[in-house]
Every structure is written in C-alpha cells, then in structure tokens.
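Input chain follows. Return structure tokens only.
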Amino acid sequence: MSENVQPRNIVLVHGGFVDGSGWQGVHDRLSKDGYRVSIVQNPTLSLEGDVAATHQILDALDGPAVLVGHSYGGAVISEAGNHEKVAGLVYIAAFAPDKGESVSTLIADPAPGAPVPPILPPRDGFLFLDRDKFAASFAADIPADLAAFMADSQVPWGVDALNGAVSRPAWRVKPAWYLVASDDRMIPPPAQRAMAERAGARTVETPGSHSVYVSQPGAVADLIKLATGR
C-alpha cells in the first residue's frame, strides 16, 4: 500500500455464539496505537443481514479500512469485503469460503479424527453449543470464569447464517492475512491452513484456542497492524 492509502480504520466482525465484546483486548491495543476501531454487532441471523450490518459501519468511515473476521465472521468479511472502502482482509481462526461455499458446506465433511464442535440440534432455527462442553471446545485457554460466562451468554446462531453462501469472495481480489490458532477445537488447524493457503493469505500461527482473539489479543493486533502497512 502506498503511504497515502494506509488505513487507520479497523473494523472487527465477530463470529457465531458470541457478540462483539470479546474484541475488547484487541480494540484497546489498536486504539492505543492510534487506530480508529469499530466493532460490528452483527446479529448472526443471516449472512445477508450480517453483511448489511458490516456495510453500515463501513459506509460511515472517512477512509479505507482493514476488515477483520473471527470464525463465522470470516464468511461475513469474505462477502462484505467487496465494499469499496475495504483495503485488506484479516482472518482470525476464521472460515474463508470460496464462491458458493458456506460455513455449512465447509464443515460438512470433517477429516477423520478432527474434533467435532459440540453444536446442539437446531432449536427454532437457531444453534447453540453444549454449555458443559463450551470451554473445552471454544475457550480452553481463557480463565474458567470467563469461559463459563461466554457459555451462559451465548448468542443464538441462525441456521440461515450457517447456510449463507458467499457469492463474491473478496479475498480473490484483495490482500488477505490469516492467523491460525494451533490449538483450535472448533475449526481444525489443518482446515485453517488450507483456507489460508487457498486465499493466498500471509499467514502466522500462534498457540491458542478458538477464542484466540480473547486469549492472545496482542498477537491478533500485531497481525492487523501488519495488514495496515504501518
């Protein structure tokens, strides 16, 4: 990126079962470094709705932005990243679907021996994780009381969001970065590496659970800063 287009805007998009509050550690570090950080509170009812919520934030910005997604948020940024203000994409232990793919299709055929996320059967069109297995699968490296709170405060994840297919993957036309969480038990690390390679993403790897954006905010913020070119 040339000097005059290096973005100072960062837009953070959360994934399924959680809200945007988990980004606080990343937000605080980037804000202290002079970035303007926005957090999308995407409803996770449908991919279309979450892309619209992300565009609402992008529309209000005064210049280019780096768009960051965790987990299902990677599907959101893959579609929303086509917005004219998005200069680059950062995937944090995230899905990076290609054209016609959804989170549902990406998890449909797990590799032998891969951990299976404890997703309960749909209830009225929404998904939850088994509360008793939440910490081990989603948040193994954060304090037990915080993991328990996250389990008890789950945001219902709409089946329509899970099934939402990406139509124009922005990573095909814009630069991408990817942080692989090497201890993830929701999205297996080999799957993360494969998606990162397919997207041509500049990739780093750090020990961490699926909640690496909570447990390792410094590593996440460092990759985002790298993506801004600053």
